[in-house]
Queue: 4 jobs
Job 1
Amino acid sequence: MIYTRQIRIAYMAIIVTVVAMVFAYILMAFQNTTSATTMNHMDHGHMDMGNGGTDGHNHVGMDMNNTDRTCAGGMLMFFHTGKCEFILFETLRTKDVGGLVGACVAIFALAIIYEGLKVFREMLLQKAMLTGNKYAISNGSSSQDTMVISNKNVGLHMMTCSHFVQTVLHMVQVFISYCLMLVFMTYNVWLCLSVILGAGIGYFLFGWRKAIVVDINEHCH
Amino acid sequence: MEAKPMSEYFYFSTTVKNFMFEDLSFHGSAGVVCVCLIIFSFTVLLEGTKSLIFYLRLRQNQNPLTYGKTETSIQTERSPLFSALMIPSSVSEIKQKRLKFHIGGYLLHSVDLLLGYLLMLAVMSYDAYILIAVILGSGVGYFVFGAINTRNQIKFQALQMSVYDRYDSQAGLTNSDASTNDASTNGSRYGSNGNTCDKTAR
């Protein structure tokens, strides 16, 4: 491992994004529980103030109904700036600004990790091809024998440990790419912006190591 | 009028309603398995198409001096005359070859796009079984076609390097002594191996 400055920046970026994702998940989970408890508190306050003035009573009642009403409304198929979205799973649901901010940070980190994963896979592939190349060439003593490496070595390339690792990383990359597509499909402006900015900053941090600029493995391209 | 995407989160279900066309629905676990198998084969086809595009690009950027050598049987590649015959002899032939590559690339890219968007729409139905089928299909597809891609890339790189070896040994740029010729071609092969390593690792 060569610890140049850029690699150090990249590693720090990875650690920061992982920490941010964990933080965001905790924040969102916390958000769901605290909103439930605050609603309980407001219920008690409503009952206590029921004997008092009518204006306060109405105000509290409208507040409680508002949090439920702003989160109604189904899937809007145009760009909108709301704060209630389902993020991919039924349990991940944003109800207010805190949850949305957490979701934005998590999606931002996910996009950065996606770009880093692509570059990481390409690095692994080049390393694997270098070792495979040396093996293939040292097989023959003259340049003519290297032509015959073609069909014999497909088995070599398929059953190596590095190819299994590449396959698993490919599946993870496919999953993350479809998840980012589905998050973009929520049509929420803030989530879409976080996807775009995350991809941009991820490319900025990791893209300097790319040899091929346009990847044919990119989905939704 | 219902909202177009039926769900906003992943769900597991034993029926697939209105899959991509209006009244196309599958009921029961057999139907779900059928749909998943179809999506799995589409994903493997997509990976295969990408592998074909990669191979096409490799052939398009192939050194013309190596045209006769992509076959693997030893007889055809041992004779240097065959590769000399394969080099195009006129500009119009070169143009035809380029046109064929462009048309082939265009067709493959359109198939690639079609399959890619079809799979995107399938995953957009938020059915968890379909997502799992897509992920497994991409894994299997990459396992088979990624190995083929690597093999092709190494083959074409070896072809490219063999051109310079032959040029060095025949043009007399290295020592004309036989033993030192072998050693120097070996050294130049490893040397050019190092150069290509540096280029690709940029």
Job 2
Amino acid sequence: MAELKLFRTWSSRFALRVVWALNLKGIQYDTIFEDLSNKSSLLLQYNPIYKKVPVLVHNGKPLVESLLILEYIDETWKQTPLLPEDPSERATARFWAKFGDDKVLLSVWNVFIKQGKDQEEAIVTAQENLGFVERQLTGKKFFNGETIGFVDLAFGWLANLLSVWEEICGVTLIDHEKFPMLSEWIQNFAGAPIIKESWPPRDKLITKYQALHEVYTSKEAPK
Amino acid sequence: MAKNDVKVLGAWPSPYVMRPRIALNIKSVNYEFLEETFGSKSELLLQSNPVHKKIPVLIHGDKPICESMIIVEYIDEVWTSGPSILPSDPYDRAIQRFWAAYVDEKWFAAMRGLRSAQGEERKAFLDQVTEGLALLEEAFGKCSKGKAFFGGDRIGLLDIAFGSFLGWLKVTEKVNGVKLLDEAKTPGLVKWAERFCADAAVKNVMPETEKLLEFSKVLAAKMKGAPPPKN
């Protein structure tokens, strides 16, 4: 029986973080792909409160919430550390990962699903948030410094999903002029072999999000 | 460490501000409590937390640390000679962090909803709050393993995260005329709440319910007068 199982979907940006973390540390694990429209009884048993992926099961014990899973992985397998050692640097990393999930992700998603004046306002908010993130890269190749770490994995979705959403809704949020450091980070992150080999197929992502975009934009009357 | 090397920017009614103060008390660290004036934000706050402009902020030397639970973990990692706030086992740590995040993102969100809701909506939030408490009662049984706190013999991360809301929980009970923590339904939590509030690290920073009730009326009046929040 395998010690480590990861429940994920082919596209989940949150599950991808766990995939990357395990791959970066060279940890072996089994993958169980879930269909979220028909969740397995195991998934519901392991994550009864949120009923979501990712779930990492280690020796029969389930862990949920991607950033918490990353912390668990980092504390259990010490090679290729994801978080820095210094407590204030760790606090900074946790702060930016949280900011990414609480504010950046939502504000970028709003640009994707809204139209007209609502979308214009969403763009302003998203770019303000991205401005804070951009400045964190000053003098660094990755958020973690020379190597990929916790915050890079937390923002990984910016390096693949964002361009999919931008293409579908016709808005460029991160352009080279306004966000030179983020643009370069995207190239560096997306180009790293461990990251690249786990990207979900782009054409499948386009199809999926095109369909979602239609659902959202047909609900709203254009303003 | 000299007292003025550690500062907490905050306000007495805020449950989030209580958290770093409890953590510092557990570690017996002296700190200066800089209170923000209600309705305005100091220069120091805006400089130390330019992203969120919110309390609490811990200023250690010249370094600002933001976000209450991140501050608590920082305190635990810096002052290692004091009692530990997080357990040492990675799985136990993950469980504490999970429930702390649940309390913030799900449970207290329902509590906040209850504050301004009417009619059917109010009932829905109340149901969510009581369901959440049932889950937390179960979590208490598992985490405490028969001991006094979620953290075991001593207050830990989850005690701090959830316990900091007890003042507002009592206010909500009074304002809504309901019993949220109940000897019949949540006996473990009822006793835990008493022990938490009586703990040396908590007593002096937990606001009195009457004071908090008065403040909640001021807050409600201010919110009524304020323009509708933009999403």
Job 3
Amino acid sequence: MHSFGYRANALLTFAVTILAFICAIASFSDNFSNQTPSAQIQILNINWFQKQPHGNDEVSLTLNITADLQSLFTWNTKQVFAFVAAEYETSKNALNQVSLWDAIIPEKEHAKFWIQISNKYRFIDQGHNLRGKNFNLTLHWHVMPKTGKMFADKIVMSGYRLPNAYR
Amino acid sequence: MGFIGETVDSIKSIKIRQVLTQTVTLGMIVTSALIIWKALMCVTGTESPVVVVLSGSMEPGFKRGDILFLHMTQEPIRAGEIVVYNVDGRDIPIVHRVIKVHERRNTGDVDVLTKGDYNKDDDIGLYADGQIWLNRHHIMGRAVGFFPYVGWVTITMTEKPIIKYILIGALGLLVITSKDRQHTEKKAGRWWGSGS
């Protein structure tokens, strides 16, 4: 009962159990962090707004995104994945979510930012429903931990509207 | 040399009842592992509650060798969720993030586009020919938790199967010989005890 094999086995099992326990606690501690993120998005310009040859509407925007996501970082955070999606409904679709821009924030210092870009991903509708369409711009974030449970949440900003005519 | 000699001796002195007991014990261990796995499948609602990340397309969040815990509910699929999906005709599941969602009124059918965080392009190139959207039936689960490095065990065993055989062989040998050594020690103890 005291051979090297038994001892190594017992030690290994104990080490793995302790490690799993510590990781679970680390993940659990994320529930207690106080999160107060804030964001603002402005549409600076509608670059163009056309109907594609297939009949789908497409629009290109320039956005001004200001956000402070520093409070999302805990000691167990590896990175925060942030993205901005345009959300709207049409007669055919109850919900459309189109991601316009995303970024990976690896550290707390980079989580307070201001950026002005045109949409990274194409904003294409299923159909031609975008003229005069009211839509929300939502900033989503996904907290990816060093170990354990991932958290996601969002801020919805409404009141945006596309022009009534193609341009 | 002593260890090998002992091992050979203990293998020679195996009795039938012992072998049967050991086989049953081994069977019990394997079946309880299977029960735990199936129970996990029930609880999480997916066919594979744990997957190993095989590519670097979700770096730096998920690296090759990490494992992901999956969960599948009937809730609608929304942008930002990290989903695991199978493309028709391919058997390796892919773990990427949803970037576009178009959900139909009334039926609740949904068209989804995914993209790996580290990739420059979206996943249309990965879908089947002519397919431009994923639907609900392609998606096996959502990633809800993550554990680093542990998946390397599975990756090594899949890519170098010889290691799998060595491991199983060693385990089998350990099970057979260790129980025997207890038995031989007990027998030896009886001899010495009765001799005094």
Job 4
Amino acid sequence: MADAEGRGCDSTDQVNSSSGNSDDVVKFKDPLLTGLDRDSDDDGMESLDLDGSSKSEVTVSRSSSLIANFRLDEDVDAETRDLFIKVDDPEKHTSTLEAYITFRVTTKTTRAEFESSDFSVRRRYNDFLWLRQRLEETYHTHLVPPLPEKHSLKRLDRFSQEFLRVRQKALQKFLTRLADHPVLSFDKNVQVFLTAKAWEFQAHKKQGKGYISQVTDSIHNMGASYMMKNRPAEFGLMHEYINIFGEKLAVMDRIATRVLREQADYHAELCEWGPCYVLWGNSEDDLKAALLSMAKAIDQCCHCLKDLIDDTDDNLAQPLKEYILYTECIKAVLRRRDAIQMEYDMVVDELNKRKDEKENVKISDQTYSIGAFLGKDPEDVKHQKEEKLDQMIVDLTRQMEVLNDRTVVANANLKADMERWHKTKQRDVKEILMALADRQIRYYEKCLLVWEDAIRAIQKKDNDPSALASIDQPPADDTNTAAGNSSGTDNTSSGVESDNANNTATVS
Amino acid sequence: MADEGESIPTSEEKRTEKREEKKTEKIERPRPTHLLQWMEMTVSEPEKRTVASMKMQDTFIVYLVETRVTDPSMRGYGEGATSVWRRYSEFELLRNYLDATFPAVVVPPLPEKKASYTWQNASTDKFDPDFVERRRAALEIFLLRVAAHPKLCQDKIFAGFLKEENGWKESVYATDFQSKAESRLKALNAAFRLKKPDRRFEELKNYSNELQNNIANILKIRTHLCDKLYGIHKVHANYARVFHEWSLIEKDISQPLQSAGHYMDVYASSVDAALEEEEQYADQLKEYYAFGDSLRSVCRRYECAQYDLERGEDTLSTKAVQRDLLRAIINGTELPASAQGKSGNAFSLSGMKTKLFGGDTPEQRDVKLKQLEEQIAQTEIELRQTTDETQVFVEAALRDIDRFKRQKVKDLREIFTNYAVMQIKQCKKGIAIWTSAKDCFSKM
């Protein structure tokens, strides 16, 4: 019988470092708990089942996945990346039943598993959905990147340019993330998705088991999460982090939406302002040119603002939404992990209960048991009970080992994926925020040029070169520009005056 | 007419000016074209004063009006420096006086009594420091414009406004300027009943209406723009808050997030100063909006003058017809053509005859004829005088309008340039803030 107290592993388990033995106050030794301050590599290695006897297909992929998990993220660089996927070229298809859009998915790779190095196929949104579902089912403790939502919230037309552009970018992101994942990208389904011709692909889709529906899966998982008592600290931290992070993302999304709305309102008003100056110009002669210059400057600022608004939607609103979806995925995976651990915990409890029962039976007096009552020898009754319990203990122990493996693997997968995700998140967030700042800077730079041009145009008088000189006169000359002067305590005005002089001094 | 803004007039121009002025105005002593060429003027230091009378307490703002002679050679003519305290209502009184006393002048307008076209955070309270400061600036511009005007600057009441704090109000009322103002009824009649209106004043009226419409549109939309811009900036303060909260759960990116959040706050609060500064633009446009009213006043006075003229002409021609008729009757000649329905009035000859001459003895008729001829002579003299006056008025008005137009072009160019400068300043600030934020982000 395996000694459940110290090892927690199959007797065939050969790799068993010292950390697995020491300091276990907990009834059952969870290697990951002790490994908190050690390298994740070691933890994973501990529970690797290198003995081939009970290997299944799942184990193979499990071990390769574990190894792959701990390849450092720096490996997934432009230089070492060996799988490039591009999504573009949306096309509308009409069949008798429906109309839908497909995107071209182009793959370039040097991986040996692929029969050649270039592929080009067409896929529709449902195909992506299928792929994701498959991956989630197969790797339910890994982090599968999110897909954009099926229906867009604001725009209703799923064939509009705008909608297609946004969706294309999101699908691109999905596949890029997938390609960068050291485990998921090697999945057979991924390969089929990227390479199979239309009819091949349809056939392939039909295979495979229908699985636990997502809905029941998540309800079950949520229950587990709620009742979790022994959640390891690091996963508890992950839960907390993801919850708060998700909240903050949602707030940022709301702020970004609000800013966009206010900017759109401002833009609408600004578009009406320019024409006012043009209208005014219609009733002026000498002033007409200046008024038209103002109108032109305002209209140009309008365009700059429109560019800013459009860019922001692409590069802030959408990425934020993607990360919100990502956060939801992570929460689901965390819940699944909890459920897995829960199953394991329950079996452990059951096992210990039976062991206690067995101890009690050993020392018990069966004289007054039911069996004795029925005429059996109390000693026999005792033995029968003991045997029954022994069998249960053996069964439970085996179950426990399987579940332990599953738990350990789940934890390792999740941990590795989370670390990778944190790095990606940091990179992405930095990019998003820098782009935000960049856009604002470029907007202001453009507007600045617009207004500098406007000043030149307004100050230009075709027949009166001395006019430029008169502007440079010191502000004390009140008669010249009574409107611009307000001597005395009005500092901004005189500051503006000297700014004006500086600006026009640079006019050639 | 010399453009008094461009440069100090040469001695040649000064002499021409003096000659011109000698013709139309009485001048006390020889001077350059206008006050500002040798005097400095400021309106400053707004202060709150409270005056308690029997039943109520009156609180108002007073402004310090100071002048100083800058040209040493003019020392003898003006006081060295003056300073008086004036409140808004006294400025109003001054302007009303100038408006009534100089009908052919486009009198500069005062800043508005109550705040208009305010966006959501601009204050409408007349004691608010920003409002008071803007009013102070506008009052100063008003005084400077008056001082820069060759006719207005010579007025004694204006001089008194600058020098005599006590008793000035009484001196204004003593001039009885209100009686010079045209009655409203007359102005209304004049507007509709002119037979030969001068096209130039008609056009000017239309122009002033259009000017006011255009400026009103610009001001209205500007108000909306201010509201929206304010909203955009203030929402960014929320970014600051969420960055801060987010930084609490992060390790590596915590510091950059917090620093960036600080810049979001800076961005949010930068809008207050920017919008306050932009109010200056609105004030300058509002001044020109009010100038539209001044223009229309001049047109109105023209119409009244022309109306008087035309009425005089009508009276004259009516009397002439009567005289001709009477003469014809006395002499038994044919009725002259002048009595035959000319001049547009529908005479009923028989009615007239009976009215005027029915039952008269020949001696009475002679007396009447003599009276008529005297009246006609009198009216002719009056008419000539009115015509001369009107002509003088029209010339002066058109000259001043031309001056106004040139000033307007210069001013508005300057105003728009200033607006552009303000925008550039805001852009630079935006660039600075977001560059700092980007710098923070780059450290993530």
